Protein backbone atom coordinates (compact mmCIF):
# COMPACT_ATOMS: atom_id res chain seq x y z
CA UNK A 1 0.00 0.00 0.00
CA UNK A 2 1.33 3.43 -0.95
CA UNK A 3 1.02 5.96 1.87
CA UNK A 4 0.74 9.66 1.13
CA UNK A 5 3.82 11.57 2.33
CA UNK A 6 1.62 13.98 4.31
CA UNK A 7 -0.36 11.17 5.92
CA UNK A 8 2.83 9.37 6.96
CA UNK A 9 3.73 12.32 9.18
CA UNK A 10 0.45 12.06 11.15
CA UNK A 11 -0.51 9.56 13.80
CA UNK A 12 -4.28 9.74 13.28
CA UNK A 13 -6.64 10.15 10.37
CA UNK A 14 -8.17 13.18 12.12
CA UNK A 15 -4.85 15.04 12.24
CA UNK A 16 -4.26 14.15 8.57
CA UNK A 17 -7.68 15.53 7.59
CA UNK A 18 -7.07 18.69 9.63
CA UNK A 19 -3.82 19.26 7.74
CA UNK A 20 -5.56 18.72 4.40
CA UNK A 21 -8.28 21.21 5.33
CA UNK A 22 -5.67 23.83 6.18
CA UNK A 23 -3.72 23.26 2.94
CA UNK A 24 -6.66 23.01 0.56
CA UNK A 25 -9.12 25.73 -0.31
CA UNK A 26 -12.79 24.88 -0.49
CA UNK A 27 -14.71 25.26 -3.73
CA UNK A 28 -17.11 28.21 -3.87
CA UNK A 29 -19.86 25.91 -5.14
CA UNK A 30 -19.48 23.04 -2.72
CA UNK A 31 -22.66 21.77 -1.04
CA UNK A 32 -20.88 20.12 1.88
CA UNK A 33 -18.62 22.57 3.77
CA UNK A 34 -16.15 19.88 4.87
CA UNK A 35 -15.68 18.49 1.35
CA UNK A 36 -12.12 19.11 0.13
CA UNK A 37 -11.71 19.97 -3.52
CA UNK A 38 -8.59 19.19 -5.56
CA UNK A 39 -6.74 20.72 -7.26
CA UNK A 40 -6.36 24.27 -5.99
CA UNK A 41 -7.16 25.93 -9.34
CA UNK A 42 -10.47 24.10 -9.79
CA UNK A 43 -12.55 27.31 -9.67
CA UNK A 44 -10.47 29.20 -12.26
CA UNK A 45 -12.42 30.30 -15.32
CA UNK A 46 -9.71 28.90 -17.59
CA UNK A 47 -9.74 25.12 -17.35
CA UNK A 48 -6.83 23.41 -19.08
CA UNK A 49 -4.04 20.94 -18.39
CA UNK A 50 -1.56 23.59 -17.26
CA UNK A 51 -4.04 25.04 -14.74
CA UNK A 52 -4.80 21.58 -13.37
CA UNK A 53 -1.10 20.66 -13.07
CA UNK A 54 -0.21 23.93 -11.35
CA UNK A 55 -3.01 23.30 -8.83
CA UNK A 56 -1.72 19.79 -8.16
CA UNK A 57 1.80 21.13 -7.56
CA UNK A 58 0.43 23.56 -4.96
CA UNK A 59 -1.78 20.96 -3.28
CA UNK A 60 0.89 18.29 -3.13
CA UNK A 61 3.64 20.69 -2.06
CA UNK A 62 6.32 19.19 -4.32
CA UNK A 63 8.50 22.29 -4.25
CA UNK A 64 11.22 21.42 -6.75
CA UNK A 65 9.61 21.25 -10.19
CA UNK A 66 12.61 19.38 -11.56
CA UNK A 67 11.40 16.22 -9.86
CA UNK A 68 8.80 13.68 -10.91
CA UNK A 69 6.70 11.77 -8.39
CA UNK A 70 6.15 8.11 -9.26
CA UNK A 71 4.33 5.89 -6.75
CA UNK A 72 4.92 8.48 -4.01
CA UNK A 73 8.68 8.66 -4.55
CA UNK A 74 10.52 11.60 -6.12
CA UNK A 75 12.87 11.11 -9.06
CA UNK A 76 15.07 13.36 -11.18
CA UNK A 77 14.39 12.20 -14.74
CA UNK A 78 16.21 15.06 -16.49
CA UNK A 79 18.86 12.85 -18.12
CA UNK A 80 16.39 10.07 -18.91
CA UNK A 81 13.98 12.51 -20.61
CA UNK A 82 16.57 13.18 -23.33
CA UNK A 83 16.76 9.43 -24.08
CA UNK A 84 13.05 8.61 -23.68
CA UNK A 85 11.81 6.62 -26.72
CA UNK A 86 8.67 8.75 -27.01
CA UNK A 87 10.55 12.01 -26.66
CA UNK A 88 10.97 14.38 -23.76
CA UNK A 89 7.72 16.30 -24.38
CA UNK A 90 5.41 14.20 -22.19
CA UNK A 91 7.93 13.90 -19.38
CA UNK A 92 8.43 17.68 -19.45
CA UNK A 93 4.66 18.23 -19.33
CA UNK A 94 4.22 15.96 -16.32
CA UNK A 95 7.20 17.21 -14.32
CA UNK A 96 6.04 18.16 -10.84
CA UNK A 97 2.80 16.26 -11.27
CA UNK A 98 1.71 13.87 -8.56
CA UNK A 99 0.35 10.51 -9.54
Number of domains: 1
Given the helix and strand composition, which structural class is it?
mainly alpha
- For the biggest β-sheet, the strand order reads 1-2
Largest sheet: 2 strands, antiparallel
Number of helices: 5
Give the tally of β-strands. 2
Tell me, briefly, the overall form: flat
Gyration radius over CA: 16 Å
Report on the structure:
The chain has 99 residues and is mainly α. It has one domain. It is built from five helices and two strands; from the N terminus they run αααββαα. The protein has a two-stranded antiparallel ribbon with strand order 1-2. A hairpin with a 2-residue loop joins strand 1 (68-70) and strand 2 (73-75). The longest helix is centred in the middle third of the chain and has 12 residues, at 49-60. The protein is flat, with a radius of gyration of 16 Å.
Amino acid sequence: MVVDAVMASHTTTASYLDTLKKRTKLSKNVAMPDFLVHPTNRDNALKCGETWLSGKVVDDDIGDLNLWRVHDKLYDLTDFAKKHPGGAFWLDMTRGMVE
